[in-house]
Amino acid sequence: MNADGVGATDVKAGVAEAADAVRSRIGDLEPVVGLVLGSGLGSLGDAFEEAVGIPYEGLPHWPPVGVAGHSGTLVAGFLQGVPAVALKGRAHLYEGHSAGVATLPVRVMAALGIRALFVSNAAGAINPDFEPGDLMLISDHLNLMGQNPLTGPVVAGDHRFPDMTDAYDSTLRNLSRETAVSAGVPLKEGVYAGLLGPSYETPAEIRMLERVGADAVGMSTVPEVIVAGALGLRCFGVSCMTNFAAGISPEPLSHTDVMEVTERVGGQFQALVCSVIGRIESVLQEP
Ligand code: HPA
């Protein structure tokens, strides 16, 4: 049993049922890339062609998302000609989900056949060279959420002790950097610290995080990347700085910053991610 009292066989069965429900809606589409679209970044889902949208509430075992009662949507189709599946909305641990439950959607995308996972999020800027509106390629993360989605019995097919040395795949990061230059999109790079939330950090916590090597802070992403590692998926990701982290600016932190800033830089984010996905197949063909 894991922390939810759920056995490894039940996880496998739940994933299989949810994947079957998705397959029954997407026909013979075989997605090779999965995308998790963070707060305010979901409009990338509108760039899909031949898109099929499936509300999460129609999918068995799917964790309900959104404190405000808005369900998310799975979008499947083609992004820049590449068969892909995107999640508009994710379950957060601060909503009360365990890390195991919150990461079921990543397992489902893996069952559908994806080989690479792109993750994105809104984050507070800690690095003094960063400011709201910056996009940051995630080079690595700090798991400070107090949970790991892999605790409990091993789910068949998982690595028990996944190597996290290259959790954010170096080849996909190279591709992202090169693409950002050619697309004219400024791209910072740094370490994402994942905290449980939902309270924002104190200034003292931000000073501590800066000292331990964090460039940005948020409340998501880390569990998904750990599960992706256990499943052998190649991962990469981008954080959108939506505010200065606590204590860096005299302004109080507010969730409305997240929406305002992601709206402002959504075009650049979309241009970058679309261009990278358009070039990803050459990387995925490599061993
Ligand atoms: N802290 C944690 N999560 C966040 C922040 C922050 O400053 N901004 C956006 N998500």
What are the salient characteristics of this protein?
single chain, about 290 residues, binds hypoxanthine, 8 helices, alpha/beta, 5-stranded mixed beta barrel
Amount of helix: 25-40%
Major sheet description: 5 strands, mixed, barrel
Q: What are the bound molecules?
A: hypoxanthine
- The best one-word shape is globular
> Termini distance?
35 Å
Low-confidence stretches: none
Instruction: Evaluate the radius of gyration.
Output: 18 Å
Proportion of residues in extended strands: 15-25%
Helix and strand content put the structural class at alpha/beta
DSSP, total strands: 9
- Identify the quaternary structure here: single chain
The ordered H/E elements are HEEEEHHEEHEHEHEHH
Number of distinct helices: 8
Mean pLDDT: 93
Order of strands, main sheet, comes to 5-8-7-6-9
